[in-house]
Design a protein that fits this description.
homodimer; 347 residues; alpha/beta; Rossmann fold; Dihydrodipicolinate Reductase, domain 2; 2 domains; seven-stranded mixed beta sheet; six-stranded mixed beta sheet
């Protein structure tokens, strides 16, 4: 990569935004100019990038002028308002919100799984939901060898999934409980410290919450097949950062756990964590801050002749959000796809 | 119940032991005499029962003389040492350990599911594992209407499952983390505060831990069928008390979620907690201290034509242990089964 790019981060002050900034620096993404955009109330603050204090600007039409790449992580409504503006001004938008993920004209990309989908972008590329990304990275290498028929997923999602304020709230609640006071829930609907509850995203008519339907629909789109049947139970747990998932897989034919282990031990983005002797498997505290999805406890499912069980943990803010977005940006740069769209998407 | 009974609690100072004491009082079990037995280091302490301070004695052969009922909750090795002695002295033992659960001559009883199994006891009745009890109470009423073929369970198990010391350790760890210090793990193998990990019980050759195999084997025994195929992923989470479980059920034929809801709304030991409008379902903090297993989020499984998803929380120390044991004692008293065994079991 010899070219360098004018980059804007939309939502620079959030949990994912600050991680985007850190990753652009750490991974040495070729940045020639960097704009930090956030809401009005953050204007005046600065954030560090490569030793320099950069000012935070508010979002406006003009902010997207002379920008090649927008990394957006400011929520669905902000993306819906500004993505088209940025594209019109000639930028490519990698969007971390759910606004465009299921739009058939917009690629939904996990670089380890479907990098080819990015090639046909029309200015916007969607970054999948965090739980979906983590599951996709772990399941795809197996699915390539023998097709997965059905997935039963149960998640253990950290407070980071609800943002920096939720992470702070869990700590405040824990302090209160330890001091004998009642915990106060303002960001999340119920106290999460020393408690847990089904994911509080809106429920559909079938009783599935949005988070669960993201795992179903986005996985099918990323894998490029409607044939995989998926069900999920998404649960918020009092962990600060890094999500965990118990994944039950049914294949079309038998799949030995030994073979799965060999495959996953060399799969991109996966780190096998399995010490059977000391009962040591992936844990959120060990996944925090790491790039890889930690996968382990690969077991033959004793309840199904073609079944496998596996357990994973991944940093929700990193591979579950910011890292995947930066990897998409790297992929675009690598394939010379960071150029103004010539055909526009209908959003 | 007009008769009253001479009762001994073995392991009276533990998390389950103190709950047994409380439940005998609360439920007004007909106690004529109560002995509190614990390890040597607790001798000299007292515990309250109906306003009276009762001394704690150490365990010995003589301690089981003139006792009708032993409620044992002092771990497998203690039960293996003392249950036969108690039975020989004429007591009936309701044992909360895993020592005798899979012995084919010993009934394994959840009173809402298989009370009839208690009738043929030979001096010892086993109380099932906590996660198993909670699942059995919720699944049995459905299984009665249409047989369950397969269960995929994922658990969210609180610190109470590892005893009072683990509960205290999680609090100490949380304090340390909130103050910026490193958490220390002594009772459990890894820090549990703001973290989670697969259940640390010993693993078998298939990679299933003991806790998971209890859910498999004990459920089959309690339900009286080997035909139900079960797989489980058991996980410890930083909740103080009350376990949660995500349960995926496959039936022989379609089972509507509406019908399941009607059935569970009037099933013994079950409390339906489902407010779809406010996204309110069972939570550990609401299950804590309650007798019922809270069940909700009953959904048609979109990945399987005969599938149902459900979510439950139950107090691990109460219905998951002490309450179930006291209910067995009540059942025995009610059926006039609290009498010296005439045939002995081989243990």
């Amino acid at each position: 990569m010899t070219k360098s790019y004018r980059v804007a981060i939309l939502g620079a002050t959030g949990a994912v935004g600050t991680e985007l900034l850190e990753l652009l620096e750490q991974r040495n993404f070729p940045v020639s100019d960097l704009k930090l955009l956030a809401s009005e109330r953050s204007v005046g603050r600065t954030l560090q990038f490569k030793g320099e204090n950069l000012p935070i600007d508010s979002v406006s039409d003009r902010a997207f002028e002379n920008v090649d790449l927008v990394l957006a992580s400011a929520g669905s409504s902000t993306s819906k308002t500004w993505a088209a503006v940025a594209v019109e001004k000639g930028a490519v938008v990698v969007d971390n919100s759910s606004a465009f993920r299921m739009n058939p004209e917009i690629p939904l990309v996990v670089p380890e799984v479907n990098p080819q989908a990015a090639a046909n972008h029309k200015g916007i590329i969607a970054n999948p939901n965090c739980t979906t990304i983590l599951m996709a990275v772990a399941v795809w290498p197996l699915h390539q060898v023998r097709p997965v028929q059905r997935i039963v997923a149960s998640t253990y999602q950290s407070a980071s999934g609800a943002g920096a304020k939720a992470m702070a709230e869990v700590k405040t609640q824990a302090s209160a409980i330890l001091e004998g006071r009642s915990p106060v829930a303002e960001v999340l609907p119920y106290p999460l410290a020393f408690n847990l509850f089904p994911h509080n995203s809106p429920l559909n008519d079938l009783g599935y919450c949005e988070e669960e339907m993201k795992m179903v629909n986005e996985t099918q789109k990323i894998f490029g097949t409607q044939k995989i049947r998926i069900t999920a139970t998404c649960v918020r747990v009092p962990v600060l950062r890094a999500h965990s998932e118990a994944i039950n897989l049914e294949f079309e034919e038998p799949f030995s756990s030994d073979e799965a282990r060999v495959i996953l031990s060399s799969s991109p983005g996966v780190k096998l964590v399995e010490d059977w002797g000391s009962n040591h498997f992936p844990m959120p505290i060990e996944a925090t801050g790491r790039d890889e999805v930690l996968v382990g406890r690969i077991r033959q499912d004793i309840s199904h002749p073609h079944g496998l069980e596996l357990w994973l943990c991944g940093d929700q803010i990193r591979k579950g959000a910011a890292l995947n977005a930066v990897q998409i940006a790297e992929l675009l740069a690598d394939k010379n796809l960071l150029r103004p769209a010539t055909t526009y998407v209908s959003i």
